[in-house]
Every structure is written in C-alpha cells, then in structure tokens.
Design a protein that fits this description.
A: mainly beta, 6-stranded mixed sheet, 5-stranded antiparallel sheet, B: mainly beta, 7-stranded mixed sheet, globular
C-alpha cells in the first residue's frame, strides 16, 4: 500500500521559534492534508492542499503541495505552547465508491519549551 | 459548528467480551469512516460507509463489524475482544470527497 514518510519524528523547540516538517511519498497524491492531534483527542484538520505547487496559509501555519505531488511541507511560525501535539500528514486513496482511505504519515511530535 | 460525536469516550472490557461503539456524523455528511489508533501509532483505516452502504474496507478484523443506520449514525461492533484491541477508535465523516472530520474517539481498554 501507499506509505507516507514524515520527518522529523519529534522536535523540541523554544517558544517563538519557527518549525518545519515534511512528508514524502513514493506515490502521487491528488490531495494532501495536514492534521494536528492533541493527546487523547481526535485529529483536527489544519490545512488541505488540492493543487500541485499550491501554497496555503492558516494563521501561523503554511503548507505547500509539492510540484511532483509526492511531497508536502508544513511550517509553523512563532511557535507558542499550544502548538504542542502530534502533526500528521495524510493522503487519500479513492475507492470509487463514494469514500476514500486516508493514509497517514507516522507523525511529528512537537514539544515547545516556554 | 456541530462535530462528530462518539460514545462512549472510555470503555473497559475484559477479554472475549463484546463492545459497541457509536458515532454520530456531522449533519448532512454522507460518508462515515472508522479508524483504529494504537499507542504511539498513526490512525489505521478500518471501514467506511457511503450513504449507509459499506464502501471500503481496510484492516478490520473479522471479529469486528459495522453498519450505518437510516439516521446516518454508525456503530462498530467488536466481539471476542483481545488485549491487542486496546486502542483509540475514531469515527470521521465527510461530505463527498471533502476532508475527513474526526470525532474525539473512544478509548477502549481490554483487560
């Protein structure tokens, strides 16, 4: 099946620093999604990317869909303590039956030191 | 805005028992998904329903079954529970091909 390679696995940063994480795949995806998960909670959608080369921002978050459609990065600027959590990239595989399977990366665990 | 509602939030069962997890999707969403997330793992797709019909199947054990009802809520039934079934179980919903919106999950502990 499809696999997403996400890096880094974990990051420790100082509050106020910028953060960058990325995701690569051996397969082409038509959509890239970035989710954040807090402990014991469900993943929350941060940004959805639909076009190769697309650069999209959501507040302090910026994500880009790679030109080859095999990679994406997520940047967080001026990190704050509430940015702590696990960030997942995800790509859909459509079954043609009205739904799709999401393949997730292994996640990047972000810790912010006040 | 209404979100995906799951119940119960926590469930403790013994080995070989049965569990039923419930999911209420976002209103007007036509597709429901179930995912399993083990400790320190990424979510793994189990099964999905589109307009109340099963549409896709992932790594769902034969001991598990699911259905979507006429009011669009869905239930995941798990029988002959094993220790390895302990995990977070998420339901998600979407409208058409839109991104999935996840509930807050049910934490199942099998003892």
């Amino acid at each position: 099946g499809q696999q997403l390679n996400q890096s880094p696995q974990s990051m420790f940063i100082q509050e106020g620093e910028d953060v960058s994480m990325n995701c690569t795949s051996s397969s082409i995806f038509n959509t890239w999604l970035w989710y954040k998960q807090d402990p014991g909670e469900g993943p929350v959608l941060l940004i959805a990317l639909y076009k190769a080369g697309e650069l999209t921002s959501n507040g302090r978050l910026t994500a880009q869909f790679g030109i080859t459609r095999k990679d994406s990065f997520l940047n967080i600027s001026a990190s704050i303590p509430s940015d702590v959590g696990i960030y997942f990239c995800a790509g859909p595989s459509y079954s043609g039956a009205g739904s799709y399977q999401l393949t997730f990366g292994k996640g990047t665990k972000l810790s912010v030191i006040p | 805005a209404a979100g995906v509602i799951q119940s119960p939030r926590h469930l403790i069962k013994e080995k070989r028992e049965t569990a039923t997890l419930k999911c209420y999707p976002i209103p007007r969403h036509d597709t429901v998904y179930w995912y399993q997330q083990g400790p320190g793992q990424d979510p793994q797709f189990l099964i999905s329903f589109y307009e109340k019909m099963q549409s896709d199947k992932g790594s769902i054990p034969d001991r598990f079954s699911a259905q979507q009802f006429s009011d669009y809520h869905s239930e995941l039934n798990m029988s002959s529970l094993e220790l390895g079934d302990s995990a977070l179980y998420f339901c998600a919903s979407s409208l058409g091909g839109s991104p999935l919106h996840f509930g807050n999950g049910t934490r199942l502990t099998v003892t």
